[in-house]
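This part of the workshop introduces the protein records we will be handling. To make this concrete, we reproduce a full record directly below.
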Amino acid sequence: MNIIVCVKQVPGTTKVAVDENTGVLLRSGVEAKLNPYDLYALETAVQIKQTYGATITVITMGPPQAAEAVREAFALGADNGIMLTDMAFAGADTLATAYALAGGIGTRCKYDLIVCGKQTTDGDTAQVGPSLAEFLDIPHMSNVISIDKAGSENIHVSADIGEYVGAYEIKLPCAITVDKGIYVPRLPSYKRMLESVKQEITVLGLEDLADTNPKMYGLSGSPTQVEKIYQPEAEAGQVIIDGSPNDIASRLCHELRELKYL
């Protein structure tokens, strides 16, 4: 089985500057990390690989520094890595991002299964995975909480659809997005970390994709635009309660009721 895992490098801090004109996060020089939800997607792929046999390829889109996310994925069990990096891709919304990823996958990858994290911590839209599947014209399932069986033609999963958990059989090739708790992400292998430094990453730009129209990517290809974004004012305070244990408990309950926590 050939598995594609989509990963993204996200800010590792909440102190990120924003371009006032475009509403795009200014990521240059900002501490970054692998999107936490993608750790569950990677672990899902590795578990399938260990149980049924598979080759895992990770793909990401971002600036050159996003290669760090791919190398971290190597240390977690990925076999191959692809990075889409081009100024034409900058500022993409979820639709333009999914279109670029679909172009990269369609250009260079043979796949049976695509696994994505449920969402990213810098966007929280949960739209890229399903949009990617639509561009590739393959079936997909979101909020998968367990892999029950994987075969050569179908995969059996359980998914939380809100009111209940359903069991589904999906024909391959297909895409799934996984939620927290599907598996416990493993720690990076030190040996694989050392090996990942020299491991090759396939780098693709706009000219490497089947559709080279720049209007389909980045800000130009994004039908949604951020109207306004700003840093909220941080308000921090404290209340010190003195007295006997009974007095403190009574006052604490009163304060919590005033704040509508009780």
Q: What stands out?
A: The longest helix spans residues 36-52. The chain has one domain: 2-216. The radius of gyration is 22 Å.
